Amino acid sequence: MTILAIDQGTTSTRAILYTADGAVLGQAQRELPQIFPQPGWVEHDPEEIWQATVSVSQDAIAAGGREPTDVAAIGITNQRETTIVWDRSTGQPIHNAIVWQDRRTAEACTALRADGLEPAVQSKTGLLLDPYFSATKIAWILDHVDSARSQAEAGELAFGTVDCFLLWRLTGGKVHATDATNAARTSLFDIRTQDWDDELLSAFKVPRALMPAVFDNTADFGVTEADLLGAAVPIAGVAGDQQAATVGQACFEPGMVKATYGTGCFALINTGNQPVQSTNKLLTTIAYRLGGQTTYALEGSIFIAGAAVQWLRDGAGIVEHAADTEALARAANPDSAVYLVPAFTGLGAPYWDPEARGAIFGLTRDTGREELARATLESVCYQTRDLFEAMAGDGAAAPAALRVDGGMIGNDWAMQFLADILDLPVERPTQAETTALGAAMLAGIQAGLMGGPSDLAQRWQRVSRFDPAMEAPERTRRYDGWRDAVRRTRSDVR
Which of 443, 465, 487, 490 sits CB 3.0–4.6 Å from 236 for a disulfide? Predict the structure, then answer.
């Protein structure tokens, strides 16, 4: 029997067919167009997400040489916080999906913060009051689509993150549910009581009638309509992308940490069965919930990581292919002190400055493509260091190593610089796409095909390790330069 993982991300939708041992049999991927109605606004077409999901699922099964009846279970992982509201009677979205990167509700967040709401948000949800999360996105849709608010209050509309929307569609509208990790990213879910919070629902003006049921990451999420994939397949595992990657990286013990380098960068450190309240603007979140038992994490979210390399290619035209950055970085002047602060959509953790904008510092007459490429890669590593400094400040134990995944980890130069600036070994796993693997693992646990966390931990393997080689004074000098560049980028200094 096989397991199908659906990985619906910010820039693409993919599906991977796995064996019960976690080996890849077949995969398919389709790019997801981005919609930018205004500066700082980011949307997706939910119908494009849906059509791509069905298409890549069919293609992955075919590429694996298997029949739909061979698929024992489906696992879903998704871009988190991205918000969709749809009509319960028709299943049609009433507005484009508002993507997690979208900053249109920054003013609403400022107003709510002035009203004193942030302490309640932080204590109950572990999150900060920021446009990143779903709550203000929901309210914006209800306030800007004709009759939406009255329909929502009447129970005629449904809200969901992308996983929830896909569950609805895959089950023919029979299941309106999400998992605890996605629920925890809405600013409406109490991570201690494990329920939607009425005080927060009221403060954000989100009717409870909109909200889905919340399940463990391994659960009976329903069965697909047979005509979609060619067979009725149980959906057995769901998790937000970063939590799925945490499972895929087998970070099941307190103190273990992973960082995923995709569009953004997200570092999660396992803090065990008790939530740790951050004093350094990290997020307290749910790592996973299995068998009704919740494991928590501290998370640092960087908005722009791989997207900086995309800008280097598509915006600035400095490289033709993302992979070109490695050779350019190696050829750069080692004495260059160019810093790129990629605050294209504001700064995430630990700054949370939605009004900050990107900047380049230290340009000289001899700055060229090579130095700009290196500065772009370095910016991702410096931002990761920011997160680790915050984790240490919150009392997190120093990890033995950082497990990395995502598209950027194939760049050896970047991974070595990451190890150097963190002063920490960086471990690259045999399977770079750990997000999809984590979704498959969760479905495999529920279907009885993959054992439990301890079994999965024993299977994890690394393909390479990068040990720090930079001298301490050089590390300090470079990081001090980065912190100064960030300081000059902040909105409060303009």
Answer: 443
